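## retry 2 of 3
previous attempt timed out at serialization; input unchanged, resubmitting
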Amino acid sequence: MNDSSYFIVAGLVLFAIVLVVYIFRYGGTKKIPVPAAFTDELMGEILEKQVRFYRHLPTDEQQTFLTRVRYFLEHTKISAEKGAVVTDEDKVLIAASATIPLFHFKLWVYRNLTEVLVYPDYFDERFSIASEGRNVAGMVGSGALSSKMILSQQALRNGFLNMSADNTAIHEFVHLIDKADGEVDGIPEYLIPKSLIEPWVKEMHKTIREIRTGESDIREYAGTNEAEFFAVVSEYFFKKPALLQEDHPKLYRMLDHIYGGAEES
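## retry succeeded, writing output
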């Protein structure tokens, strides 16, 4: 084999390797057909009615938000499980929950999520919706459920009621953001500026201690561990930013820095 033939063969082999890697890495990211009924007008009506974050955006940013919602629906399967009947509104609310925490990060997408499973009600650790002790509203899957999220339909809908500072769907998407660096530890290294990591960890641990000793009005569940703290206060930040700023100004400033800004409510 002469030199020119060698280089041709080597080039073909390299091309084949790159092609195989591409297929295995990206072949499963085909677009999911979104029904024609999912017009921007329909989604905008749902968001205007249900999502305060969207209502407080300027008109041009609302269009960007709609584009991001559609992108999520085109790349993430949403499946009804255990008898749930998932409505168009449910799908838009799930996509909105995914969009809100990352709205100010133009190039960030959920590479670690392929499907959202919607249960009709709360479930237990064995995924039963029939047990008396069921109290799980949502979870990010692991093992056989890796790259999947499970949401209670009831909790999803309740999360967009104005009187509550809780939002289960946003909570679970924040866990995915936290998980993107390999550890679910309350430190979202892909989002948080390096200079903020140390003061964030100090403030997080200080507030967790206050929660555990009953000296804080932040929901008790936030004191479970660092990951749950980050998810709970993120819910608070996006649902009731003005109240968080008033009651916990330092925590608010740090979250504002991490997320790039909340919309006033």
